[in-house]
Amino acid sequence: MPKLIGSAAIILDAEGRVLLVKHSYGKHNWDLPGGKAEENESAQETAKREVFEEVGMEVLIGNLTGIYYDPDYDIHHFVFLATSKDTRAPQPSSPEIMECGFYSRDELPRPISDFTCRRIEDALRNTPNHELFHKVGPRQWIE
């Protein structure tokens, strides 16, 4: 069985708020735009495609902010900073996405997982030489 890879993007607006999407399945939770890689696709290409599929935005993929291994699903999640090439606001553009918007790190919408919060904090920590590789456990939900 091939290894699973997922990618997500951290996209900030002019005020430094992070773009989140609300899923139309599962817990209807808020998450970073992203998803699983397709065949013959790099982690960066996955992040770029998923952002476009979910919120209709063209983005430039920037620095890698973390790699998260989830042994429960045997998947590596890659997280990148990304900047929008679009002037228009993000809009849900997939049946998987109910809503999307920019949120302050202090006022993240709920329900949201600790995994999503951790990836945001790691990306925005801005410390040189911070550890990029993390092993994650089962999700804890913040309702």
From TrEMBL:
Q: Which controlled-vocabulary keywords does the entry list? A: Hydrolase
Query: Record's superkingdom?
Result: Bacteria
For this chain, one GO molecular function annotation is: hydrolase activity
Q: Which cofactor does it need?
A: Mg(2+)
Read off the InterPro entries from this record: Nudix_hydrolase, NUDIX_hydrolase-like_dom_sf, NUDIX_hydrolase_CS, NUDIX_hydrolase_dom
- Domain (Nudix hydrolase): give its ranges: 2-125
One of its Pfam families is NUDIX
Its family? Answer: Belongs to the Nudix hydrolase family.
Q: What is this protein called?
A: Nudix hydrolase domain-containing protein
Species:
Paenibacillus rhizosphaerae
